[in-house]
Amino acid sequence: MAVYLIDYENVHYAGWEGIEHLTKEDEVILFYSENASTIPMDLHIKVATSGARLRYIHVEKTGKNYLDFQLSALSGYLVAESGQEEFVVVSKDTGFNAIVDFWNQQDFLDKKIHFARREQIALTSSKKAVAKKAGSKQTVKQTTKKAEPKQTVKQTTKKAETKATAKKTDTKQAAKTKAEKTKVEKEEPKTNTSKDNNTKQKLAEKIKAEVKKPAVKKTLSAQEKSEIREAVSGLKLAPSDYTKIYRIFRESEDKQVYNTALVKGFKNQDKGNEIYKATRKLMK
């Protein structure tokens, strides 16, 4: 036995599904408003054949959640006064889950109250259908698995031969790679030796060329300095310029190097060229 609180404004006549199976120990309380006040003839027939006690509550005002609060208030009254322990809120509105959760956690009048919410009076068979469907899929899967043909001895042998051939090919390839690597390693020292020989030869040629270079004068004689001073006397040079000319003259290997060194040393091309023209005859 149970009490069914129907939010007719939410579920309409679909929520009555299963009322014909109720007994006189069950009670159905219908909350309706002007927005939902008509009942189809086939539903009247189901209600007439039902043994459940019926009560109709008309919600006159239709503000937001107006019906919901009235249904919630009545549920509390019925828990205390009806003596029933099973209650079902028939609505699609998940907001009623708050009532369900609250009453299922309470213990009043030394009895355990059980609340539920569903979209119609009758228990839906959707879970059973899902389970049946899942069972059918499992059966088909198992049947398909059993129906898979076993590999023949010929196929198994061919598979083993293919695997052995692949392994043999991999072994040959590995041996070939190893041989090529060894060959490269043997050739590398020869290449390095040839490179070393070329380096040594270039170094020897460089040393030989250095030996052929004329020796740079280490010092200038008093006679040479006198000749340089006389040659540049008309250029109006500073005393420090003479010292610089002596050094450049002494360190230069030939006239070309001497000219370049003068221009660079005096940081003036015209001045360097003038000194060079005046003293180049002294460069032997």
Secondary-structure element order, as H and E?
EHEHEHEHEEEHHHHHH
| Number of beta strands | 7
Shape: elongated
The biggest beta sheet reads: 5 strands, parallel
Distance between the termini: 137 Å
Count every helix, treating DSSP H or I runs of 4 or more residues as helices.
10
Average pLDDT taken over every residue: 78
Proportion of beta-strand residues: 5-15%
Strand adjacency order, main sheet: 3-2-1-4-7
Which consecutive residue ranges, at least 5 long each, have pLDDT under 50? 126-131
Helix content: 55-70%
Structural class: alpha/beta
Using only C-alpha atoms, the radius of gyration works out to: 58 Å
Question: What does this protein look like?
Answer:
With 284 residues, the chain is of the alpha/beta class. Helices cover 58% and strands 11% of the residues. The chain has a five-stranded parallel beta sheet. Helix 9 packs antiparallel against helix 10. The radius of gyration is 58 Å and the shape is elongated. The protein starts with a strand and ends in a 5-residue tail after the last helix.
What's this model, at a glance?
The protein has ten helices and seven strands. It has 284 residues and is α/β, with parallel strands linked by helices. The strands form two sheets. Strands 3-2-1-4-7 form a five-stranded parallel β-sheet. Strands 5-6 form a two-stranded antiparallel sheet.
